[in-house]
Amino acid sequence: ILSHLTENKIWTAVQHNNTGLTRVQGAHPEKPYAMSFNYNSSVEQLEAVINSAEYCEQEAAYHCRKSRLLNTPNGMPFAWWVGRSNEKHLYWGGSLPGIQQCACGLEESCLDMRYFCNCDADREEWTNDTGLLAFKDHLPVTQIVITDTNRSNSEAAWKIGPLRCYGDRQFWNAASFNTEASYLHFPTFHAEFSADISFFFKTTAISGVFLENLGIKDFIRVEIRSPKEITFSIDVGNGPTEATVQSPTPLNDNHWHYVRAERNLKQTSLQVDSLPKKVLEAPAEGHYRLQLNSQLFVGGTASRQKGFLGCIRSLHLNGLKLDLEERAKMTPGVTPGCPGHCSSYGNLCRNGGKCVEKYNGYFCDCTSSAYEGPFCKEEVSALFEAGTSITYIFQEPYPVTKNASTSSSAIYADAVMSKENIAFSFLTAHTPSLLLYINTYFHEYLAVILSKNGNLQVRYKLSKDGLLIFTIDSGNFANRELHHVKINREGRELVIQVDQVLKLKHNFSEIDFKAIKSLTLGKVTDSLPLDPEVSKANAYGFTGCLSSVQYNHIAPLKAALRHPSVAPVTVKGSLTESSCASIMEADVNTVTTIYSSSDPFGKTDEREPLTNAVRSDSAVIGGVIAVVIFIIFSIIAIMSRFLYQHKQAHRSSQTKEKEYPENLESSFKADIDLQNTVSECKREYFI
């Protein structure tokens, strides 16, 4: 079992014996092809991983040429997979249990809309059905069966990926205690020689008992005694021992707090959040066995006094997870789950992302953010060429007067943009460049350009004040490095930051920048009145990488890449999604050329994935072998030259008759040059 970290997630991957692309021919219903999977974990371990995970998936890919998959819409499937409990499943990756379809069927994007899988169209050309199997109760995949590859030109290639899971399903397992008399009860906590209790709580109450378990004389209890005080009490027959942690700030602030209470034969300890741990040493003599015999009370006590008001989640006793939600469903005064996670975790949603409550947690809504990902932290960026243009069209103010005049200014009174919050990152080697252009229905505009010498300019063209130019001349920004720009205007105050450094502050005497018509990234293709400097920059547009562009609540670049058919956005020219950060140190000219090529990796037949994979692998292996052989021969040649030189020197010292060959030095240099050429070729290949 391997674990690896991606952005904000720790994935656990369990490999099996065949995760590569595998070709199948000659299979038919009377003689099916079957492959069983053996995982490098036991069945019990696999089920434990899946059951405790928040989410699990396995990729299922079926490449086909005249090989049907599920035989949709109404036929008996020609291929299927077997999952947990040895059940046969007739849906494919990207679809849902009980629906005999592939991903394209659900998305209504199949090559032939009469079928619910691409492969079911039974075409002569290569196509595929690929998606994720993510219904946990059916995972892992233990076998795949294929029965339609025995006809002329019929062939298939399949791939089942490793089992991948992330998250702790119990992390958000919570219960809300709505009255002081409400509680949950569980079987007796057996902790004779050691106890390890951990949980999160959230409350506004002054005091209350989190959990308690009694014996005849012994007991164990964790409680909040006052807004700033958590106490862990235990008695094993020697009298009560109390470990108390004092907090400098109130803990009944309706935010989540963490508690861990431990006891063993040597000591008793209590940890609250990241405050210093309170540790008490156990007495050298006396009783040491904790004997409990009543039920475990959670959120209350046996006497039903000092009950807890609030939420408890992720309760673990000696490594065992208690299912609070399931028990709460059948208990009066207690409800499963807990609202208000955003009060504690909302600040994890970054870059304008909004925290949204869920029954069992929260998620970050990145709709209005220029970023994406679980916490709105992943950049959305793309490579532009000289003619690339993205134009975002804003809704026209209502009512619209086509011939705007002084008298019509009242029409736009409610449409005045009181602020501009602009943020983006860029990487380029070209000047002049037009990065961003915003124009209004009053023929005003805001342009951000790189001038010929690489300075950054923010240019406002206002109807009353005319042209205002703000120049950031702290260096050449067309230096193939990633730069971050923020332009904020609140009322009359303008603030410009570049690379997190305040570069300029300005107070307008008056500004009425309003009624925004459109925003353009890259080249402005409409015939608009531009001043000479902006026109020069616009002649080249922008060549390079733009990332995470934000204008107030609009993310135009993200809209163009993620929702081009829905958002009011128009894309002209070549636009290729890529990571600006990953290419920051690369030559922008080279990168743009490579990514803008229609066939960047050479001409291959995309319809034959298996063949191409084999050809590609063979080519790489052959190339590596050729280079290795060449280097070996070069080394042998060099050693021969050295030996020859040494031998000649020895002879010369003896006879004084022979001299070095005239071409020795040039031959040696040629060998070195050849090695350098190979080295350079390798560097170019890996770029």
UniProtKB/TrEMBL annotation:
It is a single-pass type I membrane protein. Residues 173-338, 399-580 form the Laminin G domain. This is CNTP5 protein. Residues 339-377 form the EGF-like domain. PANTHER family: CONTACTIN-ASSOCIATED PROTEIN-LIKE 5, PIKACHURIN-LIKE PROTEIN. Disulfide bonds join C311-C338. Gene3D superfamilies: 2.60.120.1000, 2.60.120.200, Laminin (2.10.25.10). Keywords: Disulfide bond, EGF-like domain, Membrane, Repeat, Signal, Transmembrane, Transmembrane helix. One of its GO terms (cellular component) is membrane. It holds the Pfam family Laminin_G_2. InterPro entries: ConA-like_dom_sf (IPR013320), EGF (IPR000742), Laminin_G (IPR001791), Neurexin-related_CASP (IPR050372). The chain crosses the membrane at residues 619-644. The lineage of its organism: Eukaryota, Metazoa, Chordata, Craniata, Vertebrata. It is found in: Membrane. Its main location: membrane. The gene is Cntnap5_1.
